[in-house]
Amino acid sequence: MKSIALCLLALTSLFVQAQENEKKITVKPYGFVGFDAFVDSRQSATARGSGYFYPLNFAADELGADKNDRSSYDFVANISRFGFAVQGPDAFGASTSAKIEGDFAGTSGNGKDFVLRLRHAYLNLDWGKSALLVGQTWHPMFIPENYPATLNFVAGLPFHPLSRAPQFRYTYMPANKLSLSLIILSQGDFTNLGFVDQVERSDFPEAVVQVKYGSAKDFFMAATFGVKQEEPSPLGDKLTSMHGNLSLRYTAPAVTFKAEGVYGGNMTNLVMIGGLARKAENGTALNGEYEAIRTAAFWTDIHTNGETFKFGVFAGTTNNMGTANESIIVDTEKGYIRGGNIEKIYTISPRVVFTSGPVDIGVEINRTIAFYGANMDKKSKPIDSKEFANNRLLLSFRYHF
User: Which helix (H) or strand (E) covers residue 6, if one does?
Assistant: First the structure.
């Protein structure tokens, strides 16, 4: 009996020790309460109320005057967000983590009442030299290590891609500060404009390869290349388009420099201008055949790194490059396009942020000029353009937790 008791005691001790050595699940809440107040000098295209895109074109009222040539203001709090970062016991020989995050920038349909929406929901298995992420998070064209630090919560749209997508992401790290990723994606609440589920109906998921080198603490660069197939019409052919970016960042002790170039076809799921036009021959649109409108963009963001005051300026340009072959924008299919009659857009946006404890208070002045074409060339590129400008003054409050 004594030997049995000693064995039971030893087993109990080993069990307790194993439990003590096993990682526990930890959950860390995070987020911020946000409030923005802003005024625009011209009616403009926006997202979720406060996210700024570009000034609208001339639109005649009943007296022939430009009804978009008027100012407006708004106050919004729907940008507030919250999330939970989770770490737990190892699984399949890997360290495990997960994240779920939401905000109140979903829409109920009337454009003014906003509802809870999912931003991120993913799990990650990390083996040290490799990792597997599954779930919804940033589209690879959005580089978390390098994006515009604008007070406008859409982070530089439509000059900088912004999208989250359900995905499988496998990352291999062959050397220090170097990673190679292969990602396959579907589309969630960020979708291509036009026919619903046009990417999923193509039977081929979007595929992206990405290389990253360096650290956001000093020098960082990333290069991304993706291929996307879609079926714009249930009665038409499939269309393949490509997209990519080159992203650079350098962090000095006092100042951070950021820059990125973006190019691709039909990037409306990334909330950029462009989309699809109907393929044409000799000025006649072909049934069920489409061409991707190509978009090229470049942006830069420079800001100081002070703990109390931060000064910064964002500048960008985006250009409608038209299609590779002859095409026509069909009136009944303008829902496939964002800013299809815009030749180019310029913006410059200085800002200052004052930080005290968990609270940030910032002021940002944004001037954006859009060039609207009166006509189209044979490749759906706007020509004979006229410019319209908007000035936005934004006052921003954030309480981080």
Answer: helix 2-21
Q: Which amino acid is at 274?
A: G
Which uninterrupted H or E stretch holds 7?
helix 2-21
pLDDT computed for residue 113 by the predictor: 65
List all residues 6 or more positions away from 249 whose beta carbon is below 8 Å from its beta carbon. Answer: 145, 146, 214, 216, 219, 220, 221, 256, 257, 258, 259
Query: In the predicted model, is pLDDT for residue 370 greater than 60?
Result: yes
Token pair for 32? 């911020």
Question: Does an H or E element contain 18, and which?
Answer: helix 2-21
Contacts of 395 (CB under 8 A, 6+ apart): 36, 37, 38, 361, 362, 363
- Say what the alpha-carbon torsion angle 371, 373, 377, 380 is, to the nearest 10 degrees: 80
Residue whose token pair is 């409030």: 35
Please work out, in degrees rounded to the nearest 5, the angle formed at the alpha carbon of residue 341 by the alpha carbons of 185 and 194: 35
Q: State the Cα–Cα distance between residues 327 and 379, nearest whole angstrom.
A: 5
pLDDT at site 203: 85
At residue 269, what are phi and psi to the nearest 5 degrees? Answer: -70, -15
Which of 260, 196, 189 lies closest to 222, judged by CA?
Answer: 260
Helix, coil or strand: residue 237: coil
Question: What DSSP designation does 66 have?
Answer: B
Whole-number Å distance between alpha carbons of 236 and 234 = 6
35-74 pLDDT per residue, tens: 999 999 999 999 877 889 999 999 999 999 999 999 999 9
Please report, rounded to a whole number, the percentage of residues in the chain having pLDDT higher than 70.
93
Please state, in angstroms and rounded to a whole number, the distance separating the CA atoms of residues 371 and 307. Answer: 39
* Tokens read off for 159: 């000059």
SS3 of 371-393: EEEEEECCECCEEEEEEEEEEEE
Residue 196 is predicted with a pLDDT of 84
Does residue 275 have a pLDDT over 50? yes
Superfamily of domain 28-400: Porin (2.40.160.10)
Q: Can you tell me whether residue 349 is helix, strand or coil?
A: strand
| Per-residue pLDDT at 14 exceeds 60 | no
pLDDT band, very low/low/confident/very high, at 15 (cuts 50, 70, 90):
very low
